From TrEMBL:
Top-level taxon: Bacteria
Ranges annotated as spanning the membrane: none
Sorted UniProt keywords: Signal
Signal peptide bounds: 1-21
Species: Marinobacter subterrani
Residue ranges annotated for the Haem-binding uptake Tiki superfamily ChaN domain, each copy included: 56-264
Annotated Basic and acidic residues bias: 312-321
UniProt name for this protein: Putative iron-regulated protein
Presence of keyword Signal: yes
Region (Disordered): 312-335
Stretches with biased composition (Polar residues): 326-335
Matches recorded under InterPro entries: Cofac_haem-bd_dom (IPR007314), Fe3_uptake_reg_CjrA_prd (IPR016773)
Length: 335
């Protein structure tokens, strides 16, 4: 009898032991539990079923605007965004990448890079790219550049947002006309649910303090300026590139629960098809299952591991926050 070839023998051994080596069933918890900081487990919140990136892209193939919320700097968010970008492109090559991470007043510098007129280091400096650009967003921009896809600098100018947060909406009257024309016609369009969510997020305990109320109101108006600008820039991209699917990347607060940018986008274009993919941390923070806690956050969810705590020492945290505030306050709004 001729001996079995090693490869065939290995196959037969695997087949006989398959039931123990590869369990045929997995619990819903196993399917949605991320294993590393790079891992993102996609779930359909209606059915609770897990999806691959390719299956998600197939579900989104006919959607006009796909919005992926992120936790800024989380490896799982950014890896998922890159994989989804590629998978969506295979379904619909006419694609636009829209990014909160670039401000509209730097669109020209971003375009120069996409056309090969400046290098990456020049673009990062000239376009005001975020500090984590190379680690988090380079793969997405490079995919767009290599496939000759438009990239939209979707956010409001940072200095204007900052000064609206300090001085309030009247500050826009002092903005140069060319920049003002690039901002939305109704820059502070609002929704009640978003206002309530924002107040809860930054501290409802200060609502009785008139000074704090004014500060909160101006800060909220600055937030609305961001959201209205991103919604408008998405619609402008749709008009400029008819038939293209827009993939928009943003912090999850701007998109989860269908609020923020998403709600304002739908107010401006009620017939537009929009899908929101929202992140959620696993494990849950309380006794409720993670899916039940986050079911309404988006049309689809992706579970990722929590980020490490930045601080354990409250005093060091206060010092770090004070230093960040001082850096952001170094520029004046009175010029």
């Amino acid at each position: 009898m001729k001996p079995l070839a090693p490869a065939l023998l290995l196959f037969l051994l695997f087949a006989m032991n398959g039931c123990t080596a590869m369990p045929s069933t997995s619990s819903p918890e196993d399917l949605t539990r991320p294993q590393t900081q790079y891992d993102a487990r996609i779930v359909d919140p209606e059915s609770g079923s897990a999806l691959t990136v390719e299956q998600l892209a197939q579900r989104l193939a006919g959607t006009e605007v796909v919005i992926v919320g992120e936790y800024h700097g989380h490896h799982g968010s950014h890896l998922l965004q890159s994989r989804l970008q590629t998978a969506l492109y295979r379904q619909q090559p006419s694609q636009v990448l829209s990014m909160e991470q670039f401000n509209l007043d730097h669109q020209a510098e971003l375009d120069q890079y996409l056309k090969g007129q400046i290098g990456e280091a020049e673009m990062i400096e000239d376009a005001g790219a975020w500090d984590n650009y190379r680690a988090s967003y380079r793969p997405l921009v490079e995919f767009a550049r290599r496939h000759h896809l438009p990239v939209i600098a979707a956010n409001a100018p940072a200095d204007i947002v900052r000064c609206v947060g300090r001085k309030g909406p009247p500050y826009l009257d002092r903005v140069p006309e060319p920049v003002r024309q690039a901002l939305p016609a109704n820059p502070f369009m609002d929704t009640p649910a978003y206002r309530e969510k924002f107040a809860d997020a930054i501290g409802a305990s200060h609502r009785g303090d008139s000074t704090m109320n004014e500060r909160m109101e101006n800060t909220y108006k600055a937030q609305l300026l961001r959201d209205n600008t991103m919604a408008t820039r998405i619609l402008e991209a749709r008009a400029r590139f008819p038939g293209h699917q827009v993939l928009h990347l943003t912090g999850t607060f701007h998109s989860e629960d269908g609020l923020g940018t998403v709600a304002l986008l739908k107010k401006r274009a009620p017939d537009l098809s929009v899908a929101v993919i929202s992140p959620a941390f696993w494990p849950a923070t309380d006794s409720a299952p993670p899916l039940e806690q986050n079911r309404t956050n988006g049309d689809f969810l992706y579970f990722i591991q929590p980020l490490p705590d930045e601080f354990k020492d409250p005093e060091r945290e206060r010092e770090a926050m004070a230093a960040r505030f001082q850096r952001s306050s170094s520029k004046t709004c009175d010029e």
